[in-house]
Amino acid sequence: MVLSLLVCGILFGIDLRQTLGYQIASLSFALLLTSILLSVRWRPRLRVERILPDLVTAQVPMSYYLKVTNLGTRDERDLVVQDQLVTPPMSYDAFQRRRRQRSTRRTNWFDRAVGFPRWVEMRRRDRGAEIRLVAIPTIAAGASVQVKIDSTVVRRGWIQYQHTQILRPDPLGLFRARRNLPTKEALLALPQRYAVPHIHMQSQRHYQKGGVSLALAVGDSQEFASLRDYRPGDARRHIHWRSFAKSGRLVVKQYQDEYFDRHALVIDTHVEANEEELFESIISVAASVAGGERPRDSILDVIFVGAQMVQLSAGRGLGDAASALTYLAEAVASVDADFAATANVLRERAGELASVIFVLASVDDERQQLLDELVVRGISCLCLLVSVGDEQSDGLERLGTHRVFRIRSGHLSADLARIDLTP
Prior knowledge:
Blueprint (H helix, E strand, L loop, with lengths): L1 H11 L8 H20 L5 E6 L3 E3 L3 E10 L8 E7 L6 H9 L8 H6 L1 H12 L6 E3 L7 E9 L4 E13 L6 E15 L15 E2 L16 E6 L11 H7 L3 E5 L3 E10 L7 H15 L7 E8 L4 E5 L6 H10 L8 H10 L6 E6 L4 H12 L3 E8 L8 E4 L2 E7 L3 H7 L5
Parallel strand pairs: 2-8, 12-13, 12-15, 15-16, 16-18
Antiparallel strand pairs: 1-3, 3-6, 4-5, 4-7, 7-8, 9-12, 10-11, 13-14, 17-18
């Protein structure tokens, strides 16, 4: 308001003989100049520590804390704080590509003609989150306070914190002094996940070459491996009584655990560079399946199809779903994905697998041939085909003898909730 009075006073007070508007302009200028000078003198001695969670999930509200310590000799009052995130640069070509892939039904005529609202939305998404100003209670000299920051991460991947801004208004309340405290940190956001039905994977135990050890597991093969000394907690039925009768000390039989249910989740990252929405939907679908409930005594191999194929295993002491979700959080689309290498790996491991779930963007002859081969070898297959569009369908389609569930990018939650995830 004072700034508006200054501008109006200058415009209407040009002729000093006709109007007294210059007095309003002078008063407004004096008020603003006084506020700025009072703010420039503010030299606080503050230290900020950020207390972040280990992991967060995109589109899920999260909270963290800022610990602000007053290292000065006077109390600090009326402070507000705001974290600043790194905004990565974006080229004009990237803006045009992302602008074209946006659906026109989500935008108004001004946005389609100018593009500024979309630019603001893109910049907010690139930063990863929007953090508001939060008031800080009075900090006594040498004391510390913790401030809770509520935010929502809007995308997966790394969120880079650049610095923390501490602001204080001047006594007139017209200008805020600002101090930037460097507090660079990073926070990993996992992909957005949706509720999926219980995955009833086909149970078909196969011999796993080399075996998979589990600390407290009992061998399924019941095949004798060796003898060892008794340790507290060992089952009595494993005591080798003959050795006890000979040596007088307890000895137990050790078995080799080599037969498990093994399943594979194949994620196709072969997506064109201008199909960002489709790729993000594929990642969300894959994360929903990988992070869903499954039998505890099974192994899930997560295979990423890309320029360099990546394989992760979860279950039976090999890791948990968090490792797969962490990799999904950093996954990028691959235009030159080599599906042939993935197909060869699946053919080689066909004797160890009970079922395979595919998350694909398209089904071509190469992918359909692999599905046919796996089914012939007795492996249960389920294909989740992710597409961009709002075409109404019951979700279930047929590709030859295979079941294909179509998942629409704009209706992931509804489509995933009604499918039957029985391979």
